Structures are given as structure tokens and as C-alpha cells.
Amino acid sequence: MIRMKGARCARCGYKDNYAALQLHHPDPSAKDFQLDLRTLSNRRWQAVVAEAEKCVLLCANCHAEAHNPECAM
Fold first, then answer.
1. Which of these, 11, 38, 49, 63, has the minimum number of CB atoms within 10 Å of its CB?
2. Domain span including residue 12
3. pLDDT digits (tens, 9 = 90+) for 54-68
4. Total of domains in the chain
5. Angle CA(26)–CA(32)–CA(36) in degrees, nearest 5?
């Protein structure tokens, strides 16, 4: 999944550690389900890929900033 999104943060370009990269739904209204291990274990691969295509890949810092823009320093 990470490689299909370019294996780097779409916002800042971070690419040093895959563990720090997360899928982010930029349009929450288009989100059918969350992409976490618990949810994914009960989904067909095609559904997972379709959901991931709605997302952008962000590093953990950019993902936190995307969800909490009011906390910017």
C-alpha cells in the first residue's frame, strides 16, 4: 500500500521509515471505513485498495497537523 502511494509523505516528502507513514482521508465524507488492522482483517483486498485510493500518504507529523490545524505554533 505504501509503495503504491509513492513511499513518501505527500506533503513534506519524508521517506526514511515506513512505520512513520500513514494513510489520510482528505475528504472524510468519502470514507467508507478506517484503514486499520482490525477493520482490514474483515475486508476483501479489492475493497481495501479502493479505500486506499481515496487517501494520501502522510508522515505522522503531517497527518497530525492535517487533523489539528488549530494547534500550529
1. 38
2. 3-71
3. 999 999 999 999 989
4. 1
5. 80
Structure pTM?
0.82
Identify which of 39, 12, 7 has the alpha carbon closest to the alpha carbon of residue 23: 7
In this structure, which amino acid lies at residue 43?
Answer: R
Total residue length of the chain: 73
Q: What is the mean pLDDT of residues 28-52?
A: 91
Burial string for 8-18 (b: 16+ CB within 10 Å, else e) reads: bbbbeebeeee
Q: In terms of C-beta density within 10 A (0-12 exposed, 13-18 middle, 19 or more buried), how is residue 34 classed?
A: exposed
Nearest alpha-carbon partner for 17 in 8, 25, 30, 5 = 8
CB neighbour burial string for 22-32, b if at least 16 within 10 angstroms, e if fewer: bbbbeeeeeee
